[in-house]
Amino acid sequence: MAKPPFPVKPASRAGRPASRKPERQADAAKETARPETRGHEARGPARPSGAAALKRPMPAVLGPRLAAEEVGSLLVTEGWDDYRLLDMGEGEKLERYGALTVIRPEPQAMGPRRLAPSVWAAAGAAFTGDVEEDGPGRWRTEPGIGSAWEMRVMGLPVVCRLTAFRHVGIFAEQIAHWTWMAERLRAHRGPERPKLLNLFGYTGIASLIAAEAGAEVTHVDASKKSVAWGRENQALAGLDAAPIRWIVDDAVKFAEREVRRGKRYDGILLDPPRFGRGPDGEVWSLEADLPHLLDLTRQILAPGPAFMVLTAYAIRASFLSIHEITADLLGHRPGTIASGELAVRETGDPARPGRLLATSMFSRFLGA
């Protein structure tokens, strides 16, 4: 691999918030490691052998469906100045995040590569090791390449990192949701800021975009490291004064408490892993626990033009599955439910139309 055209240095440790205590609710438990898997990129240790999902009662369908339904939507991310999907093939993808070009495993890249081998060889970092969904591995980097660097997302600077589970702190396909969310928040009419709840909020990029769009944000993640990363991004973006609550907690338990408190949110983001573990060892299984979480979401979503966005990765199901359960639990409200897939378009070969790489499925509700 040749050195990238721009120097990439480790992020300064001076501004890192690792020593700051994340804000907690009084009843929020302390964090332990949780496994998380998104698509083919794991966030955290592998799911423990024999772990079982929590058993919860199945929620009831509430009345006839009143919401309009848009099934089979395809939301495509074309990339932006600081992100490009350059090429894919032979089980890998070549991407550029800011100044750093990286190679990562991608089982859906089953076809041939389009760019020359020399372009791939010039990447600054390549993930090596276990290619299974939950398997950790290592990064092979060129001399002078740091493990952390900056890029910009919708104008905001954020920190990327080469983590042991092949992700870098941002899932670029989500920008399709983030732009839509920001438009909804800016269109909010009322005497107070719109309130947004970001469950499984990860490194906080969506929370920062929402805050910049005028929202009062509650960011919840079970990982103390992810919340600290989010706070670091907040400081880097110059949004220290933005109204964001950073909470280390189990997403389901937090939502259950919000139901009991009678809280309401104008927007809710759900970005759950396939498997996960909460601060007290609570085991999350998307297939088993999503109905309960959506039922909680239904109860804390404000009336009128409020919205909910659900993204699902790495489940053996069609987007129709999450569409139908979303419609069962939110379709009794007037509005629109749109479901489909998120994809990223390849942009590295200007001589040919870029291919699409499917990344995840989604369902989102917008109230009327």
UniProtKB/TrEMBL annotation:
GO terms for molecular function: methyltransferase activity. Pfam families: Methyltrans_SAM (PF10672). The keyword Ribonucleoprotein does not apply. Keywords: Methyltransferase, S-adenosyl-L-methionine, Transferase. It comes from Pleomorphomonas carboxyditropha. GO terms for biological process: methylation. Residues 20-44 have a biased composition (Basic and acidic residues). This is S-adenosylmethionine-dependent methyltransferase domain-containing protein. The keyword Metal-binding does not apply. Residues 1-56 are annotated as: Disordered. Residues 148-319 form the S-adenosylmethionine-dependent methyltransferase domain.
